[in-house]
Write a structure and sequence with these properties.
It comes from Acanthochromis polyacanthus (spiny chromis). This is Caspase recruitment domain-containing protein 19-like. There is one protein chain. The protein has a domain at about 5-95: Death Domain, Fas. It has helices at about 5-20, 25-40, 45-50, 60-75, 75-90, 90-95, 95-125, 130-150, 155-165, 170-185. It has about 190 residues and is an all-alpha fold. The protein is rod-shaped. The model has no long low-confidence stretch (mean pLDDT about 80).
Length: about 190
């Protein structure tokens, strides 16, 4: 069932359930008829209300006829029936097959959204992107090449950089390594 199903389609799908549900007794059917007749006389006129409240006809038959009538009346009539059912019998309303399917679909969609989001968050280490990583990696490789393969003058100019790098937010062990390499470079 799509989210865009109209009330007419929902009523068509729910009609069998409503006619077979024991909670749809004479009193509830009468309250629904009165709600539709008093609040929305353009949907259910006095003549039709009297016909659907006729106690000489079994309740299930009256309910089936009323549902068929409302279905023929259109989308607004079906919508107002659901509104009246929600007001007078919430337990029946929330047990309708279309409501249950809609809840299951919403739960399934929510679970899928959460799963996709958690998978994405699990694999994303930062939001900078691959170019940021490549540029940082290239910079570090360039400094390492300059340090290890450079001669005399080049080593002296990288020593200051290594001292600055040691002051950056690196662990204590990384700082010690940078400082020791810088001091070795100065001794050469």
């Amino acid at each position: 069932m799509a989210d865009t199903d109209g009330y007419q389609e929902q009523l068509e799908n729910d009609a069998q359930f409503l006619c077979s549900d024991q909670r749809m007794d004479t009193e509830l059917v009468d309250r629904l008829v009165l709600q539709l007749n008093r609040i929305y006389p353009q949907i259910l006129s006095d003549k039709e209300a009297h016909r659907f409240r006729n106690l000489s006809v079994p309740t299930k038959v009256r309910l089936a006829e009323m549902l068929n009538y409302l279905h023929r009346r259109g989308e607004e009539a079906c919508h107002e029936f659901y509104r009246a059912l929600h007001i007078h019998a919430e337990d029946v309303y929330f047990r309708l097959p279309t409501r249950i399917r809609r809840r299951e679909m919403a739960d399934l969609k929510q679970n899928n959204d959460v799963a996709v989001k958690s998978n994405h968050e699990r694999f994303v280490l930062n939001d900078k992107g691959p170019m940021f990583f490549l540029s940082c990696f290239s910079f570090v490789v360039g400094i390492a090449i300059l340090y290890y393969y450079g001669e005399g003058e080049t080593l002296r100019c990288t020593g200051g950089f290594l001292h600055c790098s040691a002051a950056a937010r690196f662990s204590k062990d990384a700082k010690d390594v940078f400082v020791s390499y810088a001091e070795v470079g100065k001794q050469k």
